[in-house]
Amino acid sequence: MNLTIHSGTQSAKTTLLAIIVVILTGCSSSPFQPGDGAPNVYVDVDAIPNPVPRHEPISKYGNPDTYEVFGKHYKTLKSSQGFIEQGIASWYGTKFHGRRTSSGEGYNMYAMTAAHKNLPLPTYVEVTHLDNGHQLIVKVNDRGPFHDGRIIDLSYAAAIKLGINKTGTGRVEIRAIDPSNPVAHRNPPSTADVSVQALAPSTSANNAVARHIYLQIGAFSSKTNAENLRNRLTNMANHPIHILPGDNPTLPVFRVRIGPLPSDQAAQRLAFKLIDKGITNTSVVID
Fold it and tell me: S-S: 87 plus which of 151, 173, 242, 253, CB 3.0-4.6 Å?
């Protein structure tokens, strides 16, 4: 693993420990992590309460200014105030149970915790499953997931509560909680069609259109390069390939996306299929 952490405020000892912690715990996502998975015991998640958001000092570990994993650079946010994000959630389990998280706490797959790439550690967030309406609160105390297209890695218990433990991933919205005003975050998810999807199941074809799930396979400053990639994959994608121009006239970006796709699992399968074509920098997009 090629991992570098940069910080102008931490000592060399702290930086080294942060590197070790991220190597051990931050790069997981159970559906594609060899040896990871669910425990062979029944877990009564109804008996596991949501954590109560409270003010905690920023962790001594796991909060460098910037860091690098697999050649990608990430920046740690100075504050979680007002943070809202939508995307794909995954989970991690037995392989990391008992290991040290990026914040220095031990990972407990039966606790309501999560990993995030950018939020300060710790941060409390409310997670809403956008397809079934389930909600929960988790404490973000780890870094990850570092698979493209995923925004949060949940503990095994949180995955069961949210309803993604069997599918491996799910479409979610996360909202940071201010412990001083813990009810302020309780707003409906910002996607307009969420309540309809949660209450009225549709056919798979209609659901694919309503959810607007795409796999982004490239972003180019040259439209010609974007068209070349689209033409190269036209005969194997089995789904429409779109080129979306950016809205910044001074810095044009042409994004190439495949879809809409029937599910985030289908998007993940397509992403792995494209690796053989030399396309590795993909991401699942909800639009």
Answer: 151
CB burial of 216-255 (b: ≥16 within 10 Å; e: otherwise) equals bbbbbeeeeebeebbeebeeebebebbebeeeeeeeeebb
What share of the chain has pLDDT > 90, as a percent? Answer: 41
Question: If you count them, how many residues does the chain have?
Answer: 287
Per residue in 202-232, pLDDT tens? Answer: 333 333 334 578 888 888 888 999 999 999 8
End-to-end CA distance of the chain, in Å?
A: 32
| Encoded tokens for 142 | 């780890």
Domain limits, the chain: 3-193, 204-286
At the topology level, CATH places domain 204-286 in: Alpha-Beta Plaits (3.30.70)
Asked if residue 4 lies in contact with residue 18, where contact means CB atoms within 8 angstroms, the answer is: no
Answer whether 138's CB lies under 8 Å from 127's CB: yes
Q: Provide the token pair at 141.
A: 């105390």
CATH architecture of the domain with residue range 3-193: Beta Barrel (2.40)
pLDDT in tens, 79-119: 999 899 989 999 999 989 999 999 999 999 999 999 999 99
